Amino acid sequence: MSRTSTATRRAVLAAAIVAGAIGAAATAHAASLPRCHTADLSGRFGFIQGAAGSRFGPVILTNHSRHTCTIFGYLGAQLIGTGGRRLRTVVVRDHSRIPHTVRLRPGRSAAATVRWSAIPSGSERCPLPRSMHVTPPDETTQLRLRWTSDRVCGGGRIDVRPFVAA
Question: Containing domain of residue 27, as a range?
Answer without folding.
Answer: 1-32
